[in-house]
Amino acid sequence: MTSTTTTPRSATGSVALHGVTKVYGQGEHAVLALDGVSLDVAPGEFVCLVGASGCGKSTLLNLVAGLDKVSGGRIELGDGVNPGLMFQESALFPWLTVEGNVDVPLKLRRLPRAQRRERVAELLRTVHLAEFGRKRPHQLSGGMRQRVALARTLALDTPVLLMDEPFGALDAMTRDILHDELERIWAERKLTVLFVTHNVREAARLADRIILLSSRPGRIIYSTRVDVPRPRRIDSPEIASIAADVTDRLRTEVGRHGQ
Ligand SMILES: Nc1ncnc2c1ncn2[C@@H]1O[C@H](COP(=O)(O)OP(=O)(O)OP(=O)(O)O)[C@@H](O)[C@H]1O
Predict the structure, then answer these.
(1) Which of 59, 68, 85, 165 to mutate to test the pocket of ligand 1 (most atoms within 8 A of CB)?
(2) With a threshold of 0.90, does the pTM exceed it?
(3) Ligand 1 in reach of 13 Cβ (< 6 A)
(4) Could you read off the pLDDT of 121-138 as tens digits, one per residue?
């Protein structure tokens, strides 16, 4: 297999996977994690990836993020685009304040101090944490820490956001509020979002399109558009009906593997 990496193309915010394959290890211990995954994500599209545990969702995000190399196929991103990645754990620096954490990407980009201060304040307003800039991560709730992580990712000024179960550890109410916040920020900033979740209702609540991956190897087995108008409610009958359809397919897939 050839080792191909992420290559740029002109449409900012677009993400395209062409026959992407990922193999971990070698010989009899080799694990085929992804097998021929092709996916075109339009600029500004919100795509949710769902699938059973171990189907390669995180692998796919890591490849798009450029943290790992594909074993075959290729990934195309817009010119000069470095996607932002967010995880279930906020991964904040505990010794820095909220402002200090959001400032990290700006410092790395060597923006002048005054401009950084302005940007940090604007980003904290965006995630509704303007009053909490001087706090440290341990003084915040889980939901607030994820807001800081989101602000820090937005500080990268990237049009592509990769989110790996970002709200997986939060209670239902906090998650519900963060869905609204993320949807607002996504729409305002015209972001392209690739969002991994185990929670099918969450996928139906957020996505323009839901992609279902099979297990070992990960292949796209189903894709559906969510044409429910926004704003949406996670407990609405339309969302429940789409979630039920995807859940049935997921159950069949999990059953096939005897998991
Ligand atoms: N570094 C690695 N070395 C070997 N195998 C790996 C490695 N990373 C992942 N895998 C294997 O690749 C497959 C896909 O893993 P991945 O973490 O991408 O799945 P996932 O869908 O994100 O799982 P989960 O939903 O449990 O987070 C799994 O079988 C996993 O055991």
Answers:
(1) 59
(2) yes
(3) no
(4) 999 999 999 999 999 999
